[in-house]
Inverse folding.
């Protein structure tokens, strides 16, 4: 995957001695703090100059990729934040993409889930082995997501297997809690399972614009039903601005939703999103993420090659070690701009 940026700058034959600096300054003026800017050139010697310029100007070099004889450097307008998530050790959280098919077609889905997406199920037997090995590795939390996990007929067994290893949070749109799915819900252990249900706005208009007509009402009913069944429910909003975030926070305040039961996050420029926060791997504190295709760096890009760590899931200890090694290496070379991007 090519990392999406706010501005693309083709350096042509220019370097810092022949006019590139003025082009870079003009490009940065089109960016806001935190935006990504790409510089492409056929001259690999430009790399050390860009790296030195970033250090001098307190900007950040976050990615380098080569293709067909040309190099593309991705820069962040601004430097790394001080808080890089040291209170969340790598490996303490484990994400499982149970599937990728979904009953909704959200226009900013970071993994391109939809009713037409292939299921690509992780499968119960693999989940059981993952959960067993995770318990030995000190995993504190397991997150089960998709797609929509309740599209799977064996989702109850999948959640139960995870709950035997660690407390589980299930990310869902809350729209399928009826019939056999309601019976599945009722069979889960309340003390080990939390539901995180997506609700993007205080009223249906904006939520439904992104997720489909009638989805807000059905999500709200799902929230009420899960609560009535005795489950802890977290509400998660995906928003496009600070104003939307503040509006949703006021909505949650009015309903006395605790801070620990709310997740308000910005749209990530991944998957089907056409706007949002552009994220490179070095922007993200890793959270080990497993799909049917392998082990990924973070759930926000769990089908993107730039976040793939290994196609091999097992042994799980080696997958965790591979992520830690990569993270330590980037920290050592100070080429990361790591921050917590909360998916839950």
């Amino acid at each position: 995957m090519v990392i999406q940026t706010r501005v693309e700058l083709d350096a042509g034959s220019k370097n810092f001695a022949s006019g590139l600096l003025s082009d870079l300054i003009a490009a940065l003026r089109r960016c806001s703090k935190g935006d990504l800017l790409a510089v492409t050139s056929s001259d690999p010697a430009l790399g050390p100059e860009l790296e030195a310029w970033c250090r001098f100007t307190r900007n950040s070099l976050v990615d380098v990729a080569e293709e067909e004889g040309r190099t593309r450097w991705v820069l962040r307008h601004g430097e790394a934040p001080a808080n890089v998530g040291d209170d969340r050790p790598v490996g303490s959280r484990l994400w499982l993409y149970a599937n990728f098919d979904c009953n909704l077609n959200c226009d900013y889905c970071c993994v391109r889930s939809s009713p037409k997406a292939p299921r690509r199920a992780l499968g119960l037997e693999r989940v059981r082995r993952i959960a067993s090995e995770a318990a030995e590795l000190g995993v504190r939390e397991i997150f089960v997501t998709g797609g929509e996990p309740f599209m799977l007929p064996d989702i109850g067994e999948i959640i139960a297997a995870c709950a035997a290893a660690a407390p589980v949070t299930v990310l869902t749109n809350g729209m399928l809690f009826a019939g056999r799915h309601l019976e599945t819900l009722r069979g889960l252990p309340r003390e080990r399972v939390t539901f995180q249900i997506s609700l993007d706005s205080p009223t249906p208009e904006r939520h439904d614009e992104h997720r489909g007509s009638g989805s807000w009402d059905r999500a709200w009913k799902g929230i009420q039903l899960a609560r009535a069944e005795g489950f802890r429910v977290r509400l998660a909003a995906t928003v496009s601005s600070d104003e939307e975030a503040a509006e949703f926070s006021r909505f949650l305040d009015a309903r006395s939703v605790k801070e620990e039961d709310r997740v308000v996050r910005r749209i990530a420029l991944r998957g089907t999103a056409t706007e949002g926060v552009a994220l490179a791997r070095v922007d993200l504190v890793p959270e080990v993420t497993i799909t049917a295709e392998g082990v990924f760096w973070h759930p926000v890009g769990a089908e993107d090659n730039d976040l793939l760590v290994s196609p091999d899931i097992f042994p799980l200890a080696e997958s965790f070690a591979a992520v830690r090694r990569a993270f330590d290496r980037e920290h050592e070379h100070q080429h990361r701009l790591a921050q917590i991007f909360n998916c839950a």
